[in-house]
Backbone:
């Protein structure tokens, strides 16, 4: 990986326990990149993949600040001139990194999409802005893009967007690689998708955020916007972690009777239906909800088969969010 890092962050990386270990990949490859019906290239499953399975570990071609520091003074310049100077400075920073690449790396980087050809971005910055993924564990002081880092990947940057994605990403510091996990079962030949923006925004706002990518999402949720927005609002209201844990606490003190048992079962059935219909098994809300499902089923003690099913799903969900199950 060719990096543009500030000194304190470099020291943090070098002192990470286990750094640098080699990225771990499945013994049998489960994906390939090819032309996508969504447009451009995409990543597809070459075999059936189960929820929680590791699809790919990949080191980035480039990691750089999402908002790169400007090496020139912009005092006294108009807003348009300031923008041109800042974009030019960012392009120069990236040129230094690209010049270090071998031929294959350069070709991989330059073959990625560039949706920023008309806004003043240079070709290298355009690719970065179009294809960069945020690196959660790399951050300097600052809010928003200030302090954040972004990575461009030869394969993972080919993954297309869906508002109901079937994969999630996790940056693994010891191997300095991004890990891609399946958030639900993926069929052989199915395209793998990721979310480029917050899944909790309304359909209209998500489409607005995707506009700079020259892309209009036509996933099942966006195609049925009114229904989808209602379902997501219901999840956001009733099944976010704080709401779920509040009901879990109340459940512990409930007096057991057929009426309360029926209420608990209806509650988890509604949540399971909403998460599944919206394809949000990869959301950060889902593991906490599955914990609640298992707690309810365990308290009722009437359905050991479903308890085991959702207990396994909970463990797999924890894995995709980086929870270490090595001691279990």
Residues:
């Amino acid at each position: 990986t060719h990096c543009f890092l500030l000194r304190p962050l470099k020291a943090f990386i070098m002192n990470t326990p286990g750094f640098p270990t080699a990225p771990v990949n499945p013994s049998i490859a489960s994906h390939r990149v090819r032309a996508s019906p969504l447009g451009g290239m995409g990543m597809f499953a070459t075999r059936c993949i189960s929820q929680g399975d590791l699809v790919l570990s990949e080191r980035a071609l480039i990691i750089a600040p999402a908002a790169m520091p400007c090496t020139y003074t912009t005092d006294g310049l108009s807003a348009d001139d300031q923008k041109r100077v800042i974009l030019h400075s960012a392009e120069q920073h990236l040129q230094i990194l690209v010049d270090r690449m071998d031929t294959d790396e350069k070709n991989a980087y330059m073959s990625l999409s560039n949706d920023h050809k008309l806004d003043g971005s240079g070709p290298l910055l355009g690719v970065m802005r179009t294809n960069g993924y945020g690196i959660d564990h790399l951050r300097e002081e600052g809010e928003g893009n200030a302090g954040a880092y972004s990575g461009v990947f030869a394969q993972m940057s080919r993954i297309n967007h869906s508002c109901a994605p079937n994969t999630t990403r996790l940056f693994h510091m010891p191997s300095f690689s991004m890990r891609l996990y399946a958030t639900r079962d993926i069929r052989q030949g199915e395209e793998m998708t990721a979310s480029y923006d917050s899944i909790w925004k309304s359909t209209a706002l998500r489409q607005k955020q995707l506009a700079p990518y020259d892309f209009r999402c036509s996933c099942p949720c966006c195609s049925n916007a009114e229904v989808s927005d209602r379902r997501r609002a219901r999840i956001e209201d009733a099944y976010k972690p704080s709401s779920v844990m509040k009901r879990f606490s109340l459940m512990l003190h409930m007096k057991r009777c057929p009426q309360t048992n029926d209420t608990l079962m209806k509650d988890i059935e509604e949540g399971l239906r909403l998460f599944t219909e919206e394809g949000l098994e990869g959301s950060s809300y889902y593991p906490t909800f599955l914990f609640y499902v298992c707690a309810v089923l365990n308290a009722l003690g009437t359905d050991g088969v479903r308890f085991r099913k959702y207990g396994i799903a909970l463990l797999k969900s924890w894995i995709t969010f980086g929870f270490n199950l090595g001691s279990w």
Observations:
- The CA atoms of residues 235 and 274 lie 7 Å apart.
